[in-house]
């Protein structure tokens, strides 16, 4: 699985131009399930994103986690994180998990995040067209690729 985690002051997501969901201080997680990924990677990623020490402590150092601050999380599926740009200028998304498998891993990941002791968890909608309005804090952006931890 690949994910980009952004520390934010707040975010609003609009799904297919209709439904809007909103969170306060916390993180936005853009994630993509890759071919061969499993629930083990989703477990690891859920624990890691909630425990990342990317929020400032009283001395201004990034020393607190989403769990520590009771922050919110917005989780958005994002197939473009699988883009392979080795050849040409058109992204190749063939390394992303097939849709049914990707949806399962996305839903599973969301459920694992909801089990953490954090604030509110909101999601986008798998496969939908979404507009995400993010107020980045920092900015702080962390990339996690579970392929690097083994399968």
Q: Order of helices and strands, N to C?
A: EEEHEEHEHEE
Report the CATH architecture. Answer: 3-Layer(bba) Sandwich
The main sheet comes to: 6 strands, mixed
Count of the domains: 1
Radius of gyration: 15 Å
Strand content: 35-45%
CATH topology: D-tyrosyl-trna(Tyr) Deacylase, Chain: A
Q: Rough shape?
A: globular
User: At the first level of CATH, what is the class?
Assistant: Alpha Beta
Topology:
Layout: E1 2-15, E2 19-23, E3 26-32, H1 39-51, E4 55-56, E5 62-64, H2 66-69, E6 72-77, H3 99-114, E7 121-123, E8 130-145
Parallel strand pairs: 3-6, 6-7
Antiparallel strand pairs: 1-2, 1-3, 1-8, 4-5
Helix pairs in contact: 1-3
Could you characterize the architecture of this molecule?
The chain is an alpha/beta fold and about 150 residues long. The protein has one domain: D-tyrosyl-tRNA(Tyr) deacylase (D-tyrosyl-trna(Tyr) Deacylase, Chain: A, 3-Layer(bba) Sandwich), CATH 3.50.80.10. The protein is built from three helices and eight strands, in the order βββαββαβαββ. Helix 1 packs across helix 3. The chain is globular and about 45 Å long. The mean pLDDT is about 95.
Question: Nutshell version of this structure?
Answer:
Helices cover 22% and strands 37% of the residues.
Quickly list its features.
alpha/beta; D-tyrosyl-trna(Tyr) Deacylase, Chain: A; six-stranded mixed beta sheet; 3 helices
